[in-house]
Amino acid sequence: MSNPFVAKPKSVNDPNLLPFRFALKAYINEEKLRIPVLPDIVAQVMQLINNPSVNANTLARLIHKDQALAGYVLRVSNSPMYAGTKEILTLRQAIARIGARTLGKIALSITMRGEVFKADGYEDLMATIWRQSLACGALAQEVGKAVQYNSETLYLCGLLHTVGKPVILQALDILKGELKLELSYEGGLALIDEFHQDVGGRVAEQWKLPDAVKKAALHYHDPSVVEQNQKEVLITYSAHQLSMLLDAEPEEQSIEQFLTDPHFQSIRLDQKALELLVSRLEKIKELLDAMKM
Known about the structure:
By secondary structure, this protein is mostly helical. It is built from 16 helices and no strands. The relative contact order is 0.15.
């Protein structure tokens, strides 16, 4: 059940950790981090799905411009989470069944995976980070429904709450060459854990993401320090914690730890709501499988 991207890494015995930490901190403070440019198609999809009157035809035309993306979107639309009695063959059919906004979120996620959540030499690590990010996006929406809080930013809050992690991994790869040193796997995890929230906030700011998404990236570990957009940050925190149950055996999917969590209590996630959320985990796992690239 352990997940290195949920649990904080234990103390690390790596003599190279300190020089990497010093260099990474300098990179951040001196704004030398290579924050990836937000792909045009991502910016356009974000704009469309955040529009209350999203234009389905415009979205379909946009996705059609990238045939690989269109193929992935159709594959996910036919996954068990969304599938109906008939196979979806076109984007228009997908929009009719699952809605333009949901389709846009699928397209957004797939593009993010290919353009942002990548780092040479860390493919397995990045796949795990991405899986949790995707799960948190889906869970944030589910938690929002459970507490009757409707916000179109919840999916982005969950999906991008750890967006600082891939940026740090990319920086560590560069620093290995500059320092001519190797960093242990555990050392990398320790630095990711220490700096990803700060870096995630910088990414959100550079991409001009909604303030709620920036706050979620900066403070999802401790929503109590947030005043504005606290509900979104609390929901992101809850989604992050619930993601720990994804790979647990059914008998290990205990909600007891959440019933006494003050952050869960503050958004009124009671036992009935938590049991319903746990019952949705299998569907979310099916979605994660469908979105593998």
